[in-house]
Amino acid sequence: PAAARQLACLPWRARENERVRRALLWVAILLSLSLLLFWAWRSSIERTDSRYDAQIRMASQRYGVDPLLIRSVIWEETRFRPNKVGHVGELGLMQVRPTTALDWARSEKRMDFRPEQLADPEIGILAGSWYLARALRHWQNTDNPYVFALAEYNAGRRNAVRWVDPANPRSGRAFLSRIDFPKTREYVCQILDRFALYRGRMPWTSSCASLFSRSGGMGKKRAGADVAAGPRGSGRAAARPETVAK
């Protein structure tokens, strides 16, 4: 009887094994397609987002800023459109205010500089990278200068100083949780996500994701704090909530 039962089970086991093989085959096919789509997507990003890499490398070498961070800021600010003009007069790929650009020109002894030259990709990237480098130097003794510097780039030094946690002044996590302009928080996280992507990582490995879960509470919106005085592109959040030096 036992042998008979085993013989009776053979067709069922064969069918079950065939189902398992087919399921594994489909899993392998889906994984392969996913990888192909991912690499095609990455290739398209490189094609569209690398058009100003020569100017970015020049600014990176001059001011000591990671070129992929510069590229990430450009992506967030203008999606690589050099002629974009912000709502309060920001110009160029990195959306630099004319007053800040004049500070950059004085520091570089460019006496013939005119703000409209920010539409030139090379000039716009140099001026924005100079400002970003200055912010990174100011916050270099924190545990994550990128978080502090990007918030300053978006909302100005005065606001960034206000968001420092007196009990933990070097903590990027504490700083991020105290930002009471939701669009500035989103701005910082969007850039850090893109920075992670450019470095070959996935966005959930970015500094922002590791510092603080955006699904959790990140501070309450203060009345009047989210008045956008700056550009806001398709699908992104960028704000200059007050009149700032940038």
UniProtKB/TrEMBL annotation:
InterPro entries: Lysozyme-like_dom_sf, Transglycosylase_SLT_dom_1. It comes from the Bacteria. The chain crosses the membrane at residues 23-41. Keywords: Membrane, Transmembrane, Transmembrane helix. The keyword Transmembrane applies. Residues 56-167 form the Transglycosylase SLT domain. Residues 216-246 are annotated as: Disordered. Residues 228-246 have a biased composition (Low complexity). PANTHER family: MEMBRANE-BOUND LYTIC MUREIN TRANSGLYCOSYLASE C, SOLUBLE LYTIC MUREIN TRANSGLYCOSYLASE-RELATED. Belongs to the transglycosylase Slt family. This is Partial soluble lytic murein transglycosylase. It comes from Methylacidimicrobium cyclopophantes.
